[in-house]
Amino acid sequence: MGIEINLFNINHYLAKIGKGKCLISEPFSPDSYFGRSVVLITEHSENEGTLGYILNKPIDVPIHELFPDFPTFNAPCFVGGPVNPETIHYLHTRFDLLPESTPISKGIYWGGDFDLLKEHIQNGMIKPSEIRFYLGYSGWAPQQLQQEIDDKFWIVSPISSSKIMHANQNTWKELLIEMGDSYSIWANAPTNPGMN
């Protein structure tokens, strides 16, 4: 006997879509990229669309094994999304060393000069805890993300800088539980709703 969970009483608009906010996926999506994912929004425009990175899908391969000319460096690497998965992107806390990077939220920056980054890593000036790498990215055409939110696929939520830099496989569930009883229904839902 299956269980019934009413997902339609969930408020999908805890926050307005925007840079520095996150998207929390609904629990039953079969999508291999976005199922039970948390996506940080790094760009959003009603005319140009939305760009972001999945925060909670780690890859068990060090960055220097993925990119042979990269210095040996034991920093977290994640699946960023389905778009251009052969490209590398990064979030970090070192604007002082990468001044061409883009502010995303308090103390969190996106991108910067890649050659300069490698030089700083080679010289030991950036610690693995100060940067996170993403293969590929997540992107939506104008109005596409809003339609997915209207269709109850995502919750838009604030996210702390600490959560961004420490996200892991448990972050999806942790964020939902922190949001209160209504959202813990999602957090504790089985992956397959037909299962008890």
Question: In words, what does this structure look like?
Answer:
There is one protein chain. The chain is of the alpha+beta class. It has one domain (22-187): VC0467-like (3-Layer(aba) Sandwich), CATH 3.40.1740. The chain has six helices and nine strands, in the order βββαββββαβαβααα. The protein has helices at 63-66, 114-122, 144-150, 161-166, 171-178, 181-187, and strands at 22-25, 38-45, 49-54, 77-79, 83-92, 102-105, 108-110, 131-140, 154-157. Strands 1, 2, 3, 4, 5, 6, 7, 8 and 9 form a nine-stranded mixed beta sheet that branches. The radius of gyration is 17 Å and the shape is globular. It starts with 21 loop residues before the first strand and ends in a 9-residue tail after the last helix.
